């Protein structure tokens, strides 16, 4: 049996880590592209990398940036991949308002550079291409739920850059017959989600509050609704798209949308803390309305004596509002379910529980490693 070779850009990110594990399980040889950074940035994938120098490893990585055309072409030529999964991106919507040009360069032109590599190197009949497109492209659409035929109306520099990447992928498919597919993925999360996305920010802050290491979680728009799935389910859909005879574009979503406020209520509930909300607008706050001591103690290993009913734990900080917001996203993944046979396995509640337990365990470890120094715990409100 011939072993397939895959190239993953963004292998150090959330999806890169889950996809790498998935492809290695399937017997692939995988090359991951990672950026040079002054600190280790491979925490999500270290367990998959062989530490033995003389061992023929199924997973190798090379340094590359999506803005570095010559290096991308050289690497695609060296690796001659059967499949490319283009996951690398400046993926934070709020940050894209601060770094619009860089976002366009890496997310939009970066995709073009990879497609050009396939074309210039004459790999169109060998290399299949997956583009990490995003539900952010739907933006302000009034149509709900969104499917493959819903018109796009992006609302951020990130969404606009992703829209270019989407269309250039379609164009290279039609113009040069490259097997290139777009996965239009709705939000997907996990215990290794970046700490500044709202779900992980909530579960991480909850862990801090439960362990008496943090007092308040500052959030932006509590009314935004998102269709949240689990990254482990979503990387399977990426692979399925590249196994089809014909390339195509697919929406990947759960079909269920939930407000940020509701996500926070569900997360705190896992730790036995009931949350309620009072006040309006920027004065709205989340407070503890009840505590189930048994659930709390069995999860954290400590008593909840430091928490009081009535105590405010969530406040609004307008800093987290976006110049243009997307109020509601919910996807219709009928096409993927029918053509790919894909469906999500995780429920939202299962995913939230996994994230909360993971963050409580992680924070306990971090706390003890830091010998209890309060200031050494990174405060989530200090970052986006
Ligand atoms: P993520 O955790 O932010 O990972 C992004 C990856 O891209 C990281 O490995 C990052 O490297 C790398 N990267 C960023 N800029 C780069 C550059 N200029 N050159 C090379 N590498 C670069 O994102 P994710 O959640 O895994 O998402 C994966 C992809 O799917 C992204 O393209 C994202 O836009 C898209 N997407 C995500 C979702 C979602 O809900 N998660 C939904 C739809 C689409 P470092 O580790 O060094 O930062
Ligand atoms: O978690 P978020 O930052 O994710 P967002 O903006 O939906 O983008 C994510 O999903 C996209 C798919 O649709 C991906 F393409 C993209 O790469 C990324 O993975 O914010 C979700 C919602 C927003 O409406 C935001 O305004 O939560 C709201 N929110 C409220 N308070 C907050 C906060 N978001 C963040 N990051 N931080 C807050 O304090």
Shape annotation: globular
- Strand order, main sheet: write it out: 3-2-1-4-5-6-11
- N- to C-terminal separation? 47 Å
Radius of gyration: 21 Å
Q: Which percent band covers the strand fraction?
A: 15-25%
**Please, what is the average pLDDT?**
94
Helix content: 25-40%
Q: If helices are DSSP runs of H or I spanning 4 or more residues, what is the number of helices?
A: 11
Bound molecules: NADP nicotinamide-adenine-dinucleotide phosphate, ligand G4F
What is the count of β-strands? Answer: 15
Q: Which class best fits the helix and strand makeup?
A: alpha/beta
Order of helices and strands: EHEEHEHHEHEEHEEEHEEHEEHEHH
Question: Tell me about the biggest sheet?
Answer: 7 strands, parallel
Poorly predicted parts: 372-384
Molecular structure report:
β13 and β14 (285-291) form a beta hairpin. This protein is α/β, with parallel strands linked by helices and 384 residues long. The N and C termini lie far apart (47 Å). 37% of the residues lie in helices and 17% in strands. The radius of gyration is 21 Å and the shape is globular. The strands form 4 sheets. A 7-stranded parallel sheet has the order 3-2-1-4-5-6-11, with helices on both faces. The protein has helices spanning 14-25, 69-79, 93-98, 100-120, 157-176, 198-210, 231-242, 260-270, 293-300, 334-340, 348-369, and strands at residues 5-9, 29-34, 59-63, 83-86, 128-134, 180-185, 188-189, 217-219, 225-226, 229-230, 249-252, 258-259, 273-278, 285-291, 312-316. The chain is built from 11 helices and 15 strands. Residues 10, 12-16, 35, 37, 41, 65-67, 87-91, 106, 132, 134, 185, 187-188, 194 line the site of NADP nicotinamide-adenine-dinucleotide phosphate.
């Amino acid at each position: 049996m011939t072993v397939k070779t895959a190239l993953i850009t963004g292998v150090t990110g959330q999806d890169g880590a889950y996809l790498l594990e998935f492809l290695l399980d399937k017997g692939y040889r995988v090359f991951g592209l990672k950026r040079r950074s002054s600190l280790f940035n491979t925490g999500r994938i270290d367990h998959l990398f062989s530490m033995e120098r003389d061992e023929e490893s199924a997973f190798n990585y090379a340094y590359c940036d999506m803005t570095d055309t010559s290096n991308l072409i050289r690497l695609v030529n060296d690796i001659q991949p059967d499949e490319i999964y283009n996951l690398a991106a400046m993926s934070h919507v709020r940050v894209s308002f601060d770094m619009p040009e860089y976002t366009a360069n890496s997310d939009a032109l970066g995709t073009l550079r990879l497609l050009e590599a396939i074309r210039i190197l004459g790999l169109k009949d060998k290399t299949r291409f997956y583009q990490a497109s995003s539900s952010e492209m739907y933006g302000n659409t009034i149509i709900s739920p969104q499917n493959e035929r819903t018109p796009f109306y992006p609302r951020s520099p990130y969404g606009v850059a992703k829209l270019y990447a989407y269309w250039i992928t379609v164009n290279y498919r039609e113009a040069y017959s490259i097997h290139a597919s777009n996965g239009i993925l709705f939000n997907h999360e996990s215990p290794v989600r970046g700490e500044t996305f709202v779900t992980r920010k909530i579960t991480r802050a909850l862990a801090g509050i439960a362990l008496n290491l943090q007092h308040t979680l500052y959030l932006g728009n509590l009314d935004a609704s998102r269709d949240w799935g689990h990254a482990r389910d979503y990387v399977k859909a990426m692979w399925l798209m590249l196994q089809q005879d014909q390339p195509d574009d697919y929406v990947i979503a759960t079909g269920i949308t939930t407000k940020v406020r509701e996500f926070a209520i569900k997360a705190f509930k896992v730790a036995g803390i009931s949350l309620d909300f009072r006040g309006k607008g920027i004065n709205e706050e989340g407070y503890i309305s009840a505590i189930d001591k048994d659930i709390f103690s069995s999860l954290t290993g400590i008593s909840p004596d430091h928490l009081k009913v009535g105590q405010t734990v969530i406040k609004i900080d307008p800093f987290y509002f976006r110049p243009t917001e997307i109020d509601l996203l919910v996807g219709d993944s009928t096409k993927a379910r029918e053509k790919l046979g894909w469906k999500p396995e995780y429920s939202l509640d299962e995913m939230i529980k996994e994230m909360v337990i993971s963050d409580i365990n992680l924070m306990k470890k971090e706390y003890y490693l830091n010998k209890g120094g309060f200031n050494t715990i990174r405060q989530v409100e200090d970052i986006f």
